[in-house]
Recover the amino acids of this structure.
């Protein structure tokens, strides 16, 4: 069996220890590794599985310094207490000058190192501005087969939560009291409306309540009633964590999952295509929007690799 | 001939008394350290300075997992009242002046000291000495914190409020600028961050004492300052600190009594500048640095402790410490230093330097205040220090900053000082750790467990009630036979745990031709590997001296590697789990506490268990040659010591190492 198919088999049988090798593979940009990665994803596609992967894919994003990692530490322990396994894909920015990066999130997420039910991988976003690392989409859909929860954590607001929304079942935007820019971004439509908005540092009291009220009234003025807005404190004594986990479950419960995942696969294929063929490739498809519309007409059973091949074919044959 | 009437007499009517002379000492257990203290006092040392081991400093018992390899290494292990009793046997505490380098667990060690003195028949009102008790610099530099900032500041405020009333001659805190310089601080940063830190402490105490006691509180705050080899500027620094302190006392806290506003400080001279290469030169550096804090009478240190010439090699032996003590004695008793009033008064150069430092420090203090004060500005200050330290290393690499024997004048005869069988350092008996575990078990067996449980329950209750002072319950716990680890664990449960910022994320990146070439090499190796070269930098054990690890992490990023850096105090298992989950190509470990012989093999073993035994491991630290050879045998790919100041070379080595491994494994597959 090929390495990709073998890893796929391990994930299908629930072998969580396959996770590091899966990430090493999907991050690898060499031609042989990419072929293996396609085999892996094909083996884990809904067509091959007969259903959508069961995991809840949660996107967690927000400006730097608002307490995402502390919140994530508490979320992970709550999920573990409920008996769920968790994979965290932490995406950090890269240095534009050197291409290198300092992957600091791991330092801030507290977990028991002996707990095999938790997997954390830090990835640098690479040469792109904001958004997701190229391997993160593939990693999320692969790990969703074996883990109960897959978290994609990114930094920033305005760009990154849009890309996270392409991949995640539920998008959580984390803000701290007094972050007026998020409020402005929401109102002006620079950022998309998240599924759940979390205000951290609830222990501060009044400023946190004020932030809650501001966000709620902004959402009301936009006619948005679905988004849950809640306050949490990640420092001892913690508060709001269990409520947040319940709210995430509730959102997931109310989702049209097959449709959301189908859209994610199509956008994943488009992202991979754009990474490979660049602006010229997108122009050949008539632009990003046209490409998205065309993808919507394709067979829902196609996996990411097949969709990407179809896009490449279309780009090559369109005059 | 008669002197002009407006010229002050050039000599003091009476020669000054010398400063207090101490040596930072202690290792293994209380019995061995007690012997060392008594022999140091017999040699003319006038005060004691207790070095505790890392488990004691971070609040773990000798039998805790994190204590492995660290027990009795960098100081004495004190786990309970019995140890404190033994530590000061035959040393009359009513007459002694004892400095304890203890921070996160200062309240606890002070309580043990108070009870040990009480058993000698000495009331707490008579005790003299100091607890370092400065937590912010632990977050910034030294790493031996135990609790989050809020509760830590409360413990400090409680010890100050308690001692001002009940142990009036005690200096409950030493605001440390020392460790800031060790972490790379410029003189301006050293002044500004120390003063900002003092303000944060005073504000915290102000909320816990009657306002009419603030003058007395202010008068009990002392400082612990560094002295580097640029000794003229360093002297200006202490003068600037004295001026600022007076100003803060008067303006911010309305302290009316001029004596309360006096800047009182002790000194340990610089360790950062001590070199492993040609270590005998350090003796000169130490002497010159001593001048920085003794020359001018108006800003002279109250207490001085000197490092030993061989600190960059390992732990000093009693003889090495004696050599440093003799330097103090020559300076105080043979020279005419103490005959004169302040010799810099009226010096234009000195005044100019002080004015320059004051202006810079005021500006930087204003920035810290804008960020909400020192507690909230920890991230900012940490990043600024990492940045300054990086700058310093760059200047050494480029040769702009001359370090004799390191980047210039490297030719040397073989040193007879390091050719002894012991390599010129003290090695702690590895049997100490087991002895300490057994001793603690015996202690637990003989005490009244019900009394211990009650004392811990009371401690937990007081910890929850922020209005109450932690000291009485802590003293009661000491009396009941509670252990260091039990006291700390009880508070950890109430206060929560904490990881300090690493400061590396914000550090600016460097540029240079050398870098461009390295970036190309990293890029091309990454292409071959299929993904970017990924390095894990880990600090196993309790050693919190993270400056070296941080500099490696920042430089690795700057040459294009993806770097996973998790900060300090990691178990071998945590490091191995991270290495496996992150899929790194190299693991770099840093240990300065001398526990490499135990910890590095444990990490290698854990890597094997985690299924990544083939990932090469490199090690940096204060590692004697013989140990380095043993580590290589145990599978370590490369060992770096302080003489390897060229970070660029270390980066090239990493690229080469991974390239070789890559070729070897490609060969196997082919």
């Amino acid at each position: 069996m090929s390495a990709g198919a073998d890893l796929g088999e391990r994930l299908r049988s629930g072998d969580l220890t396959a996770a590091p090798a899966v990430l090493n593979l999907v991050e690898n940009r060499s031609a042989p590794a990419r072929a293996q990665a396609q085999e892996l994803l094909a083996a884990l596609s809904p067509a091959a599985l007969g259903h959508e992967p069961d995991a809840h894919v949660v996107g967690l994003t927000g400006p730097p310094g608002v307490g995402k990692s502390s919140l994530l530490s508490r979320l992970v322990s709550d999920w573990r207490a409920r008996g769920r396994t968790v994979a965290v894909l932490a995406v950090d920015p890269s240095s534009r000058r050197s291409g290198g990066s300092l992957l600091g999130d791991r330092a801030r997420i507290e977990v028991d190192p002996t707990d095999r039910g938790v997997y954390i991988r830090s990835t640098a976003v690479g040469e792109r501005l904001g958004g997701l690392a190229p391997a993160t989409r593939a990693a999320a859909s692969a790990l969703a087969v074996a883990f109960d929860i897959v978290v994609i954590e990114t930094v920033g607001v305005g760009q990154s939560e849009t890309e996270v929304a392409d991949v995640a079942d539920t998008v959580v935007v984390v803000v701290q009291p007094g972050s007026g820019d998020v409020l402005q971004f929401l109102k002006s439509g620079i950022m998309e409306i998240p599924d759940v908005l979390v205000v951290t540092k609830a222990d501060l009291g009044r400023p946190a309540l004020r932030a809650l009220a501001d966000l709620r009234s902004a959402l009301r003025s936009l006619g948005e009633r679905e988004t849950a807005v809640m306050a949490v404190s990640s420092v001892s004594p913690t508060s709001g964590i269990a409520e947040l986990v319940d709210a995430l479950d509730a959102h997931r419960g109310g989702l049209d999952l097959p449709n959301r995942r189908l859209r994610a696969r199509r956008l994943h294929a488009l992202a991979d295509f754009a990474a490979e063929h660049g602006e010229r490739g997108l122009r050949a498809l008539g632009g990003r929007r046209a490409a998205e519309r065309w993808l919507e007409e394709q067979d829902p059973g196609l996996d990411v690799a097949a969709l990407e091949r179809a896009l490449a074919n279309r780009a090559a044959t369109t005059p | 001939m008669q002197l002009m009437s407006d010229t002050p007499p050039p000599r003091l009517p009476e020669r000054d008394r010398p400063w207090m002379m101490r040596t930072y000492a202690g290792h293994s257990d209380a019995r061995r350290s007690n012997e060392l203290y008594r022999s140091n006092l017999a040699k003319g040392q006038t005060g004691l300075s207790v070095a505790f081991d890392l488990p004691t400093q971070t609040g773990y018992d000798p039998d805790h997992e994190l204590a492995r390899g660290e027990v009795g290494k960098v100081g004495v292990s004190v786990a309970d009242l019995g140890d404190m009793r033994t530590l000061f046997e035959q040393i009359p505490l009513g007459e002694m002046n004892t400095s304890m380098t203890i921070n996160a667990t200062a309240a606890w060690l002070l309580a043990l000291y108070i009870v040990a003195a009480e058993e000698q028949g000495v009331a707490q009102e008579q005790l003299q000495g100091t607890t370092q008790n400065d937590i912010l610099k632990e977050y910034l530099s030294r790493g031996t914190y135990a609790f989050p900032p809020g509760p830590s500041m409360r413990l400090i405020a409680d010890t100050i409020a308690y001692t001002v009333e009940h142990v009036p001659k005690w200096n409950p805190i030493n605001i440390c600028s020392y460790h800031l310089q060790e972490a790379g601080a410029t003189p301006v940063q050293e002044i500004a961050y120390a003063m900002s830190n003092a303000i944060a402490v005073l504000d915290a105490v102000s909320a816990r004492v009657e306002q009419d006691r603030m003058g007395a509180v202010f008068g009990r705050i002392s400082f612990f300052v560094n002295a580097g080899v640029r000794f003229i500027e360093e002297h200006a620094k202490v003068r600037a600190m004295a001026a600022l302190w007076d100003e803060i006392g008067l303006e911010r806290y309305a302290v009316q009594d001029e004596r309360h506003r006096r800047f009182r400080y002790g000194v340990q001279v610089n360790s950062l500048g001590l070199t492993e290469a040609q270590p005998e030169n350090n003796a000169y550096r130490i002497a010159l640095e001593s001048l920085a804090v003794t020359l001018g009478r108006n800003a002279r240190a109250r207490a001085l402790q000197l490092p030993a010439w061989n600190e960059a090699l390992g732990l000093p032996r009693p003889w090495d410490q004696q050599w440093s003590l003799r330097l103090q004695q020559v300076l105080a008793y043979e020279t005419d230093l103490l005959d004169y009033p302040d010799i810099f008064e009226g010096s234009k150069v000195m005044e100019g330097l002080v004015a320059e430092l004051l202006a810079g420090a005021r500006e930087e203090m204003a920035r810290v205040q804008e960020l909400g004060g020192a507690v909230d500005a920890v991230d900012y200050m940490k990043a600024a220090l990492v940045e300054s330290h990086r700058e310093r290393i760059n200047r050494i690499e480029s040769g702009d900053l001359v370090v004799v024997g390191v980047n210039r004048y490297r030719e040397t005869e073989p040193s007879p000082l390091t050719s002894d069988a012991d390599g010129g350092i003290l090695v702690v008996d590895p049997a100490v750790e087991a002895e300490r575990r057994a001793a603690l078990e015996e202690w637990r067996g003989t005490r009244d467990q019900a009394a211990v449980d009650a004392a811990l329950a009371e401690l937990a209750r007081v910890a929850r009630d922020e209005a109450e002072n932690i000291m009485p319950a802590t003293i009661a716990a000491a009396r009941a036979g509670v252990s260091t680890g039990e006291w700390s664990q009880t508070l950890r449960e109430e206060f929560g745990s904490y990881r300090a910022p690493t400061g590396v994320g914000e550090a600016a990146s460097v540029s240079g031709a050398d870098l461009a070439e390295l970036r190309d090499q990293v890029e091309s190796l990454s292409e071959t590997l299929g993904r970017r070269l990924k390095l894990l930098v880990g600090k196993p054990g309790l050693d919190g001296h993270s400056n070296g690890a941080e500099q490696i992490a920042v430089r690795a990023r700057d040459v294009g590697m993806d770097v996973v850096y998790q900060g300090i105090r990691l178990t071998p298992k945590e490091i191995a789990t991270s290495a496996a989950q992150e899929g790194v190509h190299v693991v770099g470990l840093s240990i300065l506490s001398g526990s490499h012989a135990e910890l590095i093999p444990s990490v290698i073993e854990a890597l094997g268990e985690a299924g990544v035994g083939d990932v090469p491991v490199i090690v940096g630290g204060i590692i004697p040659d013989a140990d380095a050879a043993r580590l290589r045998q145990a599978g370590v790919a490369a060992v770096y010591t302080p003489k390897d100041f060229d970070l660029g070379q270390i980066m090239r080595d990493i690229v080469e190492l991974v390239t070789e491994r890559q070729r070897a494994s490609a060969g196997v597959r082919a």
